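Hey team,

Filing this mostly as a record. A colleague (T.K.) asked me to run one chain through the structure pipeline before their review meeting, and I want the input and output archived in the tracker in case anyone asks later how it was produced. No errors, nothing strange. Just documentation.

Input sequence:
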Amino acid sequence: MAGPFVSKIDELRSRVQRDPASIAFAQLAEEYRRAGRFQEAIDTSVAGLRQHPSYVSARVTLGRALLELGQLDQAHRELADVLRQAPENLAAIRGLAEVHRRRGELPEALEQFKNAFELAGSDPEMEQLVRDLRRETGQAVSGAGQSSDRVPEAQIGGQMAGPSPADQAAARRVSAYLHRWLEAVMADRRRRLYPA
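Output structure:
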């Protein structure tokens, strides 16, 4: 496939081949991930992390690529490790939220999205999305960014029941929107921190 990803990937791959100890592996792995070449992103990250085991951005890329291939346990492990080293890493927080969402652990997903909201700063639209996700997961709504007690199941007709399929679908829509929103926030921060 021709295009900017191919030329960028080819350039980075050449750099890494010339110098296998180069930290350019992290950028190459991220380009593979963005291009949807998840196994290559994983292989490149793993190889580079043998030389640079504490390279946080490469661990984030590895976790996100594992997530895309449905390897949720491994993705969780990588992203949780990143957050132990860098608790404010938005990409890792978002990735961990997505792991929880895919496992059906919506209260945990919400907690991670709330963490991202607090780090990203005030945003009325994000505040509403956090409230909506709280509602979908059965949590009491006490305002975005504030803690509330977790309610693991909804009380329906005197019996405990999990969220309905409609509620789960709505939660997935909110989560997908939050995912896109956080990507945009991170891209904006990268542009401001590393202008071309």
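Quick notes for T.K.: The chain is about 70% helix and 5% strand. The radius of gyration is 19 Å.
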